[in-house]
Design goal:
homodimer; globular; v583 fold; about 450 residues; four-stranded antiparallel β-sheet; Enterococcus faecalis V583 fold; alpha+beta
Chain lengths: ~450, ~450
Amino acid sequence: MNHASSVNTMVAKIKDQKKTETGALKYLGERINEANTLAIDRILSVEPVFIDVDTALNVIPGMTHDTILHAGPPIEWERMCDPMKRAVRGALVFEGLAENDEAAIQLLKRKKVKLSPNHHHDAAGAMTGIISPSMPVIVTKDSTFGKTVFSTFNEGAGKVLWFGSFEKETLDRLKWIRDIFGPVMKKVIKKAQGIPIWSILAQGIQMGDECHNRHAASSNLFLKRILEPLVSIDLSKRVLLQVYNFIAGNSHFFLNITMAACKLSMDAARGIRESTVVTAMSRNGTDFGIRISGLGNEWCTAPAPYLKDALYNPGYNFNDGAPDIGDSSIIETMGLGGFAIAAAPAMASFAGGGFQESIRITKEMGRITLVKNQKFGIPVLDFEGTPTGIDLRKVVEIGISPSINSAVLHKSSGAGQIGAGIVKAPYECFSKALKAFGRKYT
Amino acid sequence: MNHASSVNTMVAKIKDQKKTETGALKYLGERINEANTLAIDRILSVEPVFIDVDTALNVIPGMTHDTILHAGPPIEWERMCDPMKRAVRGALVFEGLAENDEAAIQLLKRKKVKLSPNHHHDAAGAMTGIISPSMPVIVTKDSTFGKTVFSTFNEGAGKVLWFGSFEKETLDRLKWIRDIFGPVMKKVIKKAQGIPIWSILAQGIQMGDECHNRHAASSNLFLKRILEPLVSIDLSKRVLLQVYNFIAGNSHFFLNITMAACKLSMDAARGIRESTVVTAMSRNGTDFGIRISGLGNEWCTAPAPYLKDALYNPGYNFNDGAPDIGDSSIIETMGLGGFAIAAAPAMASFAGGGFQESIRITKEMGRITLVKNQKFGIPVLDFEGTPTGIDLRKVVEIGISPSINSAVLHKSSGAGQIGAGIVKAPYECFSKALKAFGRKYT
């Protein structure tokens, strides 16, 4: 069966038209199906465990004293959006690599700082997603295949680096996380002998979390899980309560742990020959990039979209928002977040049309995915699993883009988060990816 | 307008027929409507706060050294069901009033023990609902009208008195609750300066609790709320962890606090002249009783029903179950539990027909109630409030009985809980109540 040459002929003949692109791929159909079955098997086999806390420089592959990791596909300093630029500057000051903001800007202009995407270093970060060398990081490990993935601790709301705002308060909090919180959590996680992540998310899905913009239940469940080790280690009551209240006061605390777990799962499916499964969706605030299993580490990018229909905080509107940003869409790549919005009625206001619209979105995501993940049963759908494993072919053929539950940062003022809502991954990423796939396999 | 004599004529003429009873009541219609509006206003105005922990003997009105309080309407020893008898005997041994089980039985046969319903002492208890003099009790207070209601701490699952089983393990746990847990919780609640109850339940409803058989989220939220005071008081780590783990290990912990809060609300509507609002539903395992606002403290009873369609633990079936038992149906009287089952998809298996059946039940309960309680927005119904304030007239006229989420105790072996499911309040209670209402007001 000479699929390849048939496809080649087709692709050559009808290059840019969506319908025929898909048609071409159908010749490869059976082999793609087999590859995708393997990809899905691997995705569903991953068992992520929060196993340790360590300093980024010690554990993240390729991290150096002068490296700053960021969200999304690769991007140079000049093209970064304002909130990401601010977060990079803040990180340089936090690291002592620059004495102040002005000095940080000079370092960056003179290209004295290595900027690199989290995704190239087994890491994931929310919103601006900055990881700098001295930050303590969550270490998650897949007990099935053995891979490790890293993320920072979530800083909470307000003047925080992940929202691209930095002030004295921001740096003070980062120092406390580095000097107090991180070392305590290292002891806690060691004492707990690791914390399996899916079981917390599976309970969260039963309690109204979609596990991206709503982590209220899973953050509480995590807190409950670590209390005994937290109390058991040798701490003053003051520090114990600081640590406890920091987590208890942040309903997004578990977000970064979820991201790392989802990346572990999706990375397990990376680089499978002829698989059309989407293994990453990520945004740097300028570009939106996706990765396809069969295309390995290649990014297929398009301009990052704006959140037109988001709910904005009072005093802000669509015109104030930066484009979509963050590695957190790895959660949707794994079938949670926007794909699981029917599990989170409290997120219905995001969907604009009430709860029935949330159900419609989850059902629609079922049309572009390959499997229902029975680990995460959506209660109101009679425990039907979350729609998982985006198939590039289906996105292009049906013309439905993945739906992502996201947040909006201010485009220029450093105000941080100004809204939240749903964004659709750009169709252009998928049509580009399909062409690249066609080129590679035909 | 001589409503009374018209009604009298009607009632005299057509006594026992449901349709005409209701017809008769319609003459009283406007005055009943006014009375019910007041009842609902009072129910929705109550703001229950968990304010203290104290010993039953110190605080429960009418409690004496030789009194044992029980669930349901009044009942003499001989007519009690087996699990309630066992719980009473266990309480006598726990109190030291009897040296052993045999001595307890003799005391009871010789009527040396005062048995009285919780509801006659501003108290509520789950399942057998036993409260004995030395037990520490939750003290809840309505900050609107000032009334106080009491309940015990929930013992958890297994060999526990509230399930009518007692062994050394049961008594040891009760002693620990009395000597260690209760005093610690007294300090915690004092330090917390009281804990408002509705706000925890309102969050619980958003996180999959129906607040009767599922309290997983609200128990976690309570635990999170008390952690800071718990750590702040002077305790050894050992005791701190014992107390924490006792609550963390029991997803029904908040149940007894919910019962007390619901009783505060319903008691606020008790004794309003001409009101047909149901102010209590309660079962002692032999009789099912209801109270109607306009009938004051009168109980209208019928035989307690069996749970035919319950889910039974392996090895047990319908033939092993005792009739329905417990004061916890005060929760349904307040529009939570079975009335709010659409908020708890995890309870769908109770409903037998999946999640759509849960929605149907909540909608049906809307037909026999007077108001939607906006404090508790049911997420999947686009935050429609829980159906609250059962109208005796509607139950009789439409012929739909209240739906209660309940559990089943073994009828004879002392095995404790053997199943859980939905039970319907007996229609007979309501038809009797309507007749009594007719007699009183015509």
